[in-house]
Amino acid sequence: MSVSAGDTRLTAPLREQAPLHEQGPLYEQASLCERLALPVSVPGRTAVWWWRIPGTADPRDVALLQPADHIRLSRIRSPARTVEFITSRARIRTVLGALLEVRPEDVELGRRPCPCCADPEHGPPAVLRPATPLWIGVSHTAGCGMLAVSDGPVGIDVERVRQVRTDDLAAAVLAPAEAAHLRSLPEGPARTGAFLRVWTRKEAVLKGVGIGIATDLTAVETHPQSEAPVTVSAGLPGAPVPWSVSDLALPGPWLAALACRS
To answer: How far apart are CA 130 and CA 133, in angstroms?
Structure first.
């Protein structure tokens, strides 16, 4: 379902607060995002949008970048990553602008303070302006970007399906039960797919916590042998909390997961 008048709100309680309305030609870009149908098991009021990332950046998307974006862009060396960042920043602002009734260029993105050290440079993503109680999660990979909006802490991750040297990564990434499950699968697509499913679940949770993958990944058990939703315990050291994690169905060669505080 494309982002169009009347359908980009979350659930009924938010509908009166955030109707979608036309605010100029930049809103034509909203048709490039699609709202994803979510499993009924997703808790709270949550919505997810996704978009395809083209091979080159659209000048209209570049026009939506803000000074802080240009600083981040200057640190990116890969042309493909550059397009991912530009396109995703524009799509995020377009959807949030429609949701919050402001122009896309008036949406200021930033971060909440890190829950570990209170550093504002590496906490979970946030809408700094306009003021809103909503939480957001952001992810992009080769060819695809995603935005989650929720009334509570939320994390999302998307990965392109690709060859992965699972045996080399297992010791640093997998919990013991996860490693055992992967070893039970035949080498090739089945094992690679299971690894990427573990990774998207794990990273979605850690993004929701706000600490990212700069932690002991082997301490986060994502129950890959179980169909989603699964409950994953994660949080600050010594204070894990339960997260409900759902796998998301996307067309094309991508896997994604959504994590919401239970």
So the answer is: 10
Ramachandran area for residue 236 (φ above 0: left; ψ -120 to 50: alpha; else beta)? beta
Q: Is the peptide bond before 130 cis (omega within 30 degrees of 0)?
A: yes
Q: What is d(CA 169, CA 190) in angstroms, rounded to the nearest whole number? A: 16
Best CA proximity match to 130, nearest among 109, 112, 153: 109
What DSSP assignment string belongs to 234-256? EEETTEEEEEEEEEE--SSSEEE
Dihedral, CA atoms, 199, 117, 236, 241, nearest 10 degrees? Answer: -90
Asked if omega into 43 is within 30° of 0 (cis), the reply is: no
10-residue averages of pLDDT along the chain (262 residues): 39 35 39 83 88 94 95 94 96 94 95 78 90 96 96 96 90 94 93 95 94 82 94 85 94 94 83
Max intra-chain CA distance, the chain: 55
Bin 73: left if φ > 0, else alpha if -120 < ψ < 50, else beta: alpha
Residue 59 tokens, joined = 């000048």
Q: What's this model's pTM, rounded to 2 decimal places?
A: 0.87
Q: Which of 135, 113, 138 is nearest to 126 (CA)?
A: 135
Q: What is the pLDDT of residue 41?
A: 80
Helix, strand, coil percent content, the chain, rounded in steps of 5: 35, 25, 40
